[in-house]
Design brief:
The protein is of the alpha+beta class and 510 residues long. The chain has helices at 59-62, 77-83, 189-195, 210-213, 309-315, 354-373, 377-390, 399-422, 426-439, 444-456, 460-473, 478-509, and strands spanning 11-15, 22-28, 41-50, 55-58, 66-69, 91-96, 117-127, 129-131, 138-144, 157-166, 171-181, 203-209, 232-243, 245-247, 254-260, 273-281, 287-291, 298-301, 323-329, 333-344.
């Protein structure tokens, strides 16, 4: 057999370093885009010969495929480099120069010195082997590929089947179906580390060093005393399924575990009309609250304080028909079994006509006022901000509607500035007052509240300008007079501070 030169364009130069000249001619294309990586265990068929010389070994003649670990020096370098480019099902002819074969020495009796070798290789399959810890502590060999692309995350709850053995074949422990949180672990550290790299249905063999193979949790492991550290633990692991656990707040105070995935992609937003069924339990399993049924689900409007805040935040991440277990870690831990039956999202402002926008703005302003009276200043601020968005674009409004919208906008921004002062967000408060004054330069409340904000940020000159302007407009306003006294006190304190600093500098110079 000789290397065909009928189609020179099909030859691909694989290695140009030092002009070593390894070439590849594809006879049959592969069936996927993936190629093996260094360390993978590949399975191939091959036949070969010395160029212009005798035939070499053939797996086809032996009737069994050839296995080796790629990139580990178990075969000649030309094979390592060439096979690494192959896809599953691919068949190709490789022409391997002496430098990538047996070089100047050759391999007696069939391969002379400086011989070029020609191999036809068929890629049957390969098993991926990965060093999961970077120190050889956990080597993972994929036996069966999983489905899809997703893998479990740190908080997820996985269901696995496993069998753990010592190097000598002694069975340590096995289970045909056990679930655990990835972050909590089970049996040994290797299982938590490996399962985060697996897809649903994947089967893998783990070869783990003793340190990664045994857990310190005596409740979950058979004590194996007196075994040397060089012992390996072998674990055959299958990821059957997993449930996604979401950290709603980012601090693990509200966790949601999906028991049944929902439909579609949409989720409730603020103002959505939601229909749910839920059961609330305490840590001891006692039922604390129960709402709704399949025939008559509990209905509520989101962000209207009609359900527990932690539960509501979780529901707003759910899809229609989703079932979940929500854990709220507050003063006491609560467990909610909840199903989102259905929901209708609030109509977005760009789909509203002008009258609907004005009505929605008035409603949100009213909701903000109620929240402010209840001293929920953060929620009130959010309501006022939402209210203004409804009337942000008023180019389609009539003149009367524009006047109404301007009045609402001024009132919402002014109220929101009061919220920001309570929340100690003084820069934001000043910006909102400035918006009001751009619309109504003689607004005393806006001048007064912006002065308060400037006093807190020590912008004393700006504060004085605002308070003097307010006194001109309303000279008998008691609150403004009191604020002016506070300003004068701050100015005296600041002047004294500057004088002390100057005095200290002069004394040091002298």
């Amino acid at each position: 057999m000789t290397l065909s030169h009928q189609n020179e364009d099909s030859q691909i130069l694989l290695n140009q370093i030092g002009n070593q000249g390894l070439t590849k001619q594809i006879l049959t294309k592969g069936v996927s885009w993936q190629t093996p990586s260094s360390g993978d265990e590949v399975q191939v068929h091959f036949r070969g010969h010395v160029e212009n010389g005798p035939s070499l070994e053939s797996s086809y003649d032996k009737g069994s495929s050839f296995h080796f670990k790629l990139g580990q020096g178990e075969v000649i370098k030309g094979w390592d480099e060439g096979v690494a480019t192959m896809k599953k099902g691919e068949r190709a002819i490789f022409k391997i120069p002496p430098a990538l074969a047996y070089g100047e020495v050759g391999s007696s009796p069939l391969i002379p010195p400086n011989a070029t070798l020609v191999f036809e290789i068929e890629m049957l399959c390969w098993s991926s082997i990965r060093d999961l810890t970077g120190d050889g502590g956990i080597m993972k060999k994929t036996i069966r590929e999983g489905e899809g692309w997703a893998t479990p995350k740190e908080l997820d709850e996985v269901l696995v089947k496993y069998e753990a053995k010592l190097e000598n074949g002694m069975l340590i422990k096995s289970d045909k179906g056990v679930d655990f949180n990835v972050s909590d672990g089970y049996l040994c550290p290797a299982m938590s580390i490996a399962v985060k790299t697996m897809r649903k249905g994947e089967v893998a063999e783990l070869s783990t060093k003793f340190f990664y193979g045994l857990s310190q949790n005596s409740n979950r492991i058979i004590e194996l005393n007196g075994l040397p550290d060089s012992n390996l633990v072998s674990i055959k692991l299958e990821l059957l399924s997993w449930k996604i656990v979401t950290d709603i707040t980012g601090d693990k105070k509200i966790l949601k575990k999906i028991n049944k995935p929902g439909e579609g992609f949409d989720r409730p937003n603020e103002g959505s009309h939601a229909k749910v069924i839920y059961l609330c339990k305490g840590e001891d399993g006692t039922i604390i609250d129960r709402k709704g049924s399949k025939d008559e689900p509990f209905e509520f409007t989101t962000q209207e304080e009609q359900v527990h805040e932690g539960l509501e935040r979780a529901i707003m991440t759910m899809k229609k028909a989703e079932q979940a277990l929500v854990t709220v870690n507050a003063e006491k831990t609560l467990f909610y079994e909840v199903e989102l039956i259905d929901f209708i999202k609030e109509k977005p402002f760009w789909k509203m006509d002008t009258q609907e926008k004005l009505e929605a703005c008035e409603q949100k302003k009213h909701d903000g006022n109620l929240q402010f009276k209840a001293q929920y200043f953060r929620r009130a601020s959010e309501k006022y901000e939402k209210a203004v968005k409804y009337i942000e674009f008023d180019h389609t409004f009539s003149d009367d509607e524009k006047r109404h919208a301007n009045t609402l906008r001024l009132s919402c921004n002014l109220n929101n500035a009061a919220c920001k002062l309570k929340l100690e967000e003084y820069t934001e408060a000043a910006k909102l007052c400035t918006k009001v004054l751009e619309q109504d330069p003689l607004n005393v409340k806006a001048l007064y509240r912006r002065c308060q904000a400037y006093l807190k940020t020590s912008d004393l000159e700006k504060a004085e300008a605002d308070i003097k302007r307010a006194l001109i407009i309303d000279p008998n306003n008691r609150d403004i007079k009191l604020e002016y006294k506070e300003l004068k006190l701050k100015q005296r304190e600041y002047n004294k501070y500057e004088a002390d600093i100057f005095s200290t500098m002069v004394s040091k110079m002298n």
